[in-house]
Write a structure and sequence with these properties.
Blueprint (H helix, E strand, L loop, with lengths): L5 H5 L4 H14 L5 E2 L11 H12 L12 H15 L8 E4 L2 H12 L5 E6 L3 H9 L3 E6 L10 H6 L5 E7 L11 H13 L3 E5 L20 H4 L2 E6 L12 E4 L2 H13 L6 H12 L3 H22 L5 E2 L7 E5 L7 E2 L2 E2 L3 H12 L1 E2 L1 E2 L8 E5 L4 H16 L3
Parallel strand pairs: 1-13, 3-4, 3-5, 5-6, 6-7
Antiparallel strand pairs: 2-8, 7-8, 9-10, 10-15, 11-12, 14-15
Helix pairs in contact: 3-11, 4-11, 5-6, 5-10, 12-14
């Protein structure tokens, strides 16, 4: 048989989903694994949203919708964007798709030609790198360090720009670090993008999960020049505990929106009509559930930060947003676990799962060796159990 496509054959599977699947497989075998790999709220979808889906079925909202999504949901997105970040969009500028991950893929498909370079601040979410390659682009990783607060400086970004650079992917707040750019920092980045005429894919899926005194600022709120170059990606997965409903959206200028709508019409056709009805209720309805979940995430964040700070050999940057801590494990690398040297954070994660029954994701997956990502989108009871096991595991290292 002829070989499969070269790019498709080289694509790596999602490390976060792989860890989550392994943890679930072990649990199904009766093994008590404490899993912190997936970026999925442990809460149930609020009842008013579930009821909206049931009503949609009863009302026979089970047919095709326009490729860009129902008018009700696109209008609801516009209202939510106006209320939350002060941005004005028309429904014609909104594209609804099957989750924010698919929206990112659509955005890159619309922008990239073979060989186009994409600036990718590191550490980066695992799917960005592979999606750029899937769309025949070239990822250009612009790294940052824990000492820099995981913020990529404007100087580093500008130095990485070439005549092939097409766009910048910005995840704010960031997965995996929880870092969030301030308004002055974003203004400098926006100025660079406008001067070099770059598009920005702004992934703001964690925008409602911001803690302490930090204040979220959207890239599109910084003026018309950067707004027209920005493809804003968001969705209902994290804010409303709707990961399995698979609804995300893109807000973009009218020309880009038309192109993406055509991609939708020839790929998945449209996102689930029933899920769109549920998402519309999420955006239009009471927002108290969002505040309640955020409050619980904040409490978990405080607890895990205190525990990590007290563990010898580990440390982390305090995350401003999302629901992850990116833990520095370089202080324990080189030690042995049952005779095996923990040379990398991938080794650390493997042995922690096998011996400690705790599942986390290695930093190699995010372009940051020496770190592990621990999600606190889990119950406090589970977090306490996991941290207790982590300490017990570390005590066995030689």
């Amino acid at each position: 048989m002829k070989p499969l496509g070269k790019i498709a054959s080289e694509i790596s599977p999602s490390a976060t989903l792989a860890v989550d699947n392994l943890a679930k497989s072990m649990t199904a075998q009766g093994i008590d694994v404490a899993g912190f790999g997936a970026g999925e709220p442990d809460f149930n979808t609020p009842d008013n949203i579930k009821l909206a889906a049931i009503e949609a079925v009863i009302n026979n909202e089970t047919h095709y919708t326009p490729a860009a999504g129902t008018m009700r949901l696109r209008t609801a997105v516009c209202r939510r964007l106006k209320e939350d970040i002060g941005a004005d969009y028309e429904p014609s500028q909104i594209i609804i798709s099957s989750g924010a991950k698919h929206c990112l893929y659509l955005a890159m498909s619309a922008l990239l030609d073979p060989g186009d370079e994409v600036l990718l601040p590191g550490p980066y979410w695992v799917s960005y790198y592979e999606q750029i390659r899937m769309c025949h682009g070239v990822p250009v990783v612009v790294g940052s360090t824990q000492e820099e607060g995981w913020r990529v400086s404007p100087e580093k970004l500008e130095a990485a720009i070439t005549d092939k650079t097409k766009c910048l992917i910005l995840n704010n707040p960031c997965n995996p670090t929880g870092m969030m750019y301030t308004r002055p920092e974003l203004e400098k980045i926006a100025d660079i993008c406008v001067r070099h005429d770059l598009y920005v894919i702004s992934d703001e899926i964690y925008s409602c999960l911001v803690y302490g005194d930090a204040e979220f600022c959207s890239m599109v709120s910084l003026g018309e020049e950067i707004k027209k170059r920005t493809l804003l990606v968001n969705g209902v997965s994290k804010a409303y505990a709707m990961t399995g409903w698979r609804i995300g959206y893109i807000a973009a200028n009218a020309e880009v929106a038309k192109v993406i709508s055509r991609y939708m019409s020839h790929s998945i056709g449209n996102a689930s009509n029933i899920a769109q009805a549920a998402a519309a209720e999420a955006l239009e309805g009471p927002q108290d559930s969002v505040a309640a979940m955020k409050s619980m995430f904040a409490a978990r964040r405080e607890y895990i930060l205190k525990r990590i700070a007290a563990i010898e050999g580990l440390n982390c940057h305090e995350p401003e947003g999302a629901f992850y801590v990116f833990i520095n494990v370089t202080g324990v690398l080189g030690k042995k676990c049952g005779g095996k040297v923990l040379a990398t954070s991938a080794d650390f994660c493997e042995e922690l799962l096998k011996k400690g029954l705790v599942a986390v994701v290695s930093g190699e997956s995010f372009g940051a060796p020496g770190y592990v990502r621990w999600s606190y989108a889990a119950s406090m009871e589970k977090i306490k159990k996991g941290l207790d096991r982590l300490e017990e595991f570390l005590a066995t290292l030689e």
